[in-house]
Amino acid sequence: MEKKKSLAIIIAIVLIVIIVLALAGGSFKKIAQPSVTLNILSGSENRVLEPILQKFEDENNIKVNMTYEGSVDIMQELQNGASAYDAVFPANSIWISMGDTNLKVKHQESITTTPVVFGIKKSVAEKLGFVGKDVTTKDILEKIKSKELSFMMTSATQSNSGATAYLGFIYALLNNPEVITTDDLDNETLKTDLTTILSGVNRSSGSSDWLKDLFLQSDYDAMVNYESVIIDTNKELVSQGKEPLYVIYPKDGLGIADSPLGYIDNGDSTKEEAFLKLQEYLTSDEVKPELLNLGRRTAFAINFENNNKDVFNPDWGIDTQKVLNVMKMPSADVIQKALNMYQTELRKPSLTVYCLDYSGSMYGDGVESLRNAMSMLLDQQKASEYMLQASPKDVTIVIPFDSNVLDVWKAEGNDSTQLANLQKEIDNFEPQGGTNIYAPLLTAMDEISKYNVNDYTTSIILMSDGQSNAGSIKQVEDKWNSSNLDIPIFSITFGNSDDTQLQELADFSKARVFDGKENLEKAFKEAKGYN
Amino acid sequence: MKSKIIGGLILIVVIIAIIVFQFLNSNKPEQITVSGYLGGEKVGLMEDEEVKKILKDKYGLTVEYTKAGSIEMIEQDSSDKDYLFPSSQTALELFNQTKSDKLYKSEIVFNSPIVIYTWKPIAEALIQNGIVEQKDNSYYIADTTKLINLVIDKKKWSDIGVNDLYGYVTIQSTDPNKSNSGNMFAGLVANILNNQTVVDSSTVDKILPQLKDFFGKIGYMEHSSGDLFEQYLKTGMGAKPMIAGYENQMIEFAIENPNDWNAVKDQVAVLYPEPTVWSSHPLIALNEKGAKLIEAMQDPEIQKIAWTKHGFRTGVNGTINTNVEGFYGIPQNINAVIQMPNPDTMQKIMDGIK
Hints:
Chain A has 531 residues and is an alpha/beta fold. Chain A has 20 helices and 16 strands. Chain A has three domains: 36-110 and 260-293, Periplasmic binding protein-like II (D-Maltodextrin-Binding Protein, domain 2, 3-Layer(aba) Sandwich); 114-257 and 312-335, Periplasmic binding protein-like II (D-Maltodextrin-Binding Protein, domain 2, 3-Layer(aba) Sandwich); 349-528, Rossmann fold (3-Layer(aba) Sandwich), CATH 3.40.50. In chain A, α3 packs parallel to α4 (93-99) and α17 runs parallel beside α18 (473-483). Chain B folds into three domains: 1-26; 27-111 and 281-310, 3-Layer(aba) Sandwich (D-Maltodextrin-Binding Protein, domain 2); 113-278 and 332-353, 3-Layer(aba) Sandwich (D-Maltodextrin-Binding Protein, domain 2), CATH 3.40.190. The longest helix of chain B has 26 residues, at 2-27. Classes of the chains: A alpha/beta (531), B alpha/beta (354). Chains A and B meet through α1, α4 and β4 of A and α1, β2, α10 and α12 of B.
């Protein structure tokens, strides 16, 4: 009896506790922090922040997912609503300003600043008389025009540093007007000058970060990049016992990457809270020294007393007290027109050979994805959305393969009928047979040698979904070396592709491997962005 | 027996718990969420924890917002919004002209004058050139016409003695067609070009070519006053030598970031144009919920926070009695004020600059 009673009392107490808790439920704070994921659409220059972000993730139980895209892509994604992302982190606030037509971005704050500068080998800079005095963009362009200086820059339509440099060139070539107008862009002398200058860009890149890697593998005099990336490059050059780059801040100004981090409001307050935490962390006094160590500036008004001379090394021409003149960004329609001109008229034409895997395993969904991805580049309407249109001088070659080379299809220029015919071939061809990734590369090199490669930004883009069970890399490498053409062999992984085989190709040809396993279209887009 | 007592006690505890809970609940106002478009310069105020608490505890309001330019928000579809909180009389008047059927109630809750933010070396050069005067720690643009003419006459920085800067003198603002500070600045410049008298429909055509020229020199124009001000502070004198903004922006920045303020306070300069224009901040309610927000924003406590922490002047003439800690050079009164052109004339100005 007593037992029953006490049992009843216990039950009663438990019930009461439950009722009270239920009533008061709203006013109790949840003790356990829910795990939140922040999907951030970011410029590739922020890849170096990953260790810093990792620390934040560990301390706060918040997952940070970075997706790296070019500036123009980020702008486009924002225009389309960017509903898959919680935050945006481009190199320059202008891409948010031009992209955020849906007014979804808030809490925008600059995390770091870094100017876009010229980095020139010190011995070359000295020879050209650029050390210890004010230099204008025009002075530098004269030396590029007269072939006294070879340089690298990223694609203006894919990357912020490239776009900034390109607009800076236009100002300089127009003799620094107060602001560029759309009419100015029709100036024929300007176009000729720009074409000459851009023809000197021997290797291009879709991202500032990768331009550094490419620079380290090659032998150029100079590159246009962020001060922070030049610092990074110099650290590596010095450790390899090579000559560091000397930084030139053009007197007439280039641009400043103000790296704004903004929240994309999709109406989820938990994410907003997590975002604000991240933003506070990145601008905190704890993190600032780490950002400085990466060569990013964190001071207000961009100038600061330099207590970090290993990083902001004055021997490299770095000056943290100098007033940094910045060119005025022209209005949005001028920027748009200038970028379009770059893509379809002024840039060095590209000669691109696509080697496409039509082996049996591609049958069905695989080949369907491939066709869609190719149509994004060949259909000029679609390509223009990503600023990847062909120019009248571009050459596009497609080589389908299985265990053998199956055919060679070609389109010269940007004629939409020709490009559509190419797409038709791609659509009508059905996969079968085994895989030999090396055979089409040999054919590709033969095709390329029919052109004067110096007139083109040349590349091979190999897409494969399997392991090569025939042919040998040795043969490809020998031919590559003997042809002396410096052609990057980019690869796109898909399905069960053997990434080691593809990486080997990328390594010796100074290229890179793009992951198409999750998103084939994106991988093709990225690869094409390098040309 | 024992168990009966315990049972009774439990019952009493439950009853008391329920009563206390009910009481606590009934003392709290009904909680509602209001959403609307907010001018970027007021984000700091609406995100202020103290303000949020007063709104919630005293008025039962949780305020959600989408940041938008003052003019932009009038043009946007606002059918799912409860309020619009632009920063100009012009925006309100535009609203009355185009969407008067949507107006539930409106009230001007804050004021802030338009100022020019620049840097010490430039302010000094402007003093040397007889354009700026320094009185009681404040900088006044005594000869506003001369300043505007520096831009129109294509003077270079070196012409006025600022040798560190390259290129031409410009004053940047936000896009007058998108954002209010730029819009008000356009109204002010138009008045200055019209011999410092308010432009109207009979005089606007005469000054329009010069005004277009003036704004054409800016190049890319930001859409939000907050973003432009951020860039001014972060990218420095070579990037943003002079910008038009609201007085409250620097005050708010100084209070919210005392360390950062210490780092820049000797470098920046705030110039008060004579005359300037008032940016009034009308809160436009689109329904009953929005009207509740108007009531709340006029709460004396909120108005006090608005000035002391965010720099919005609140009285009729915007006279200030309390100092902002650590901040000097704020005039107590803004005496030289010129009216904004009327909405029709402003529309002409905006179309002209487009």
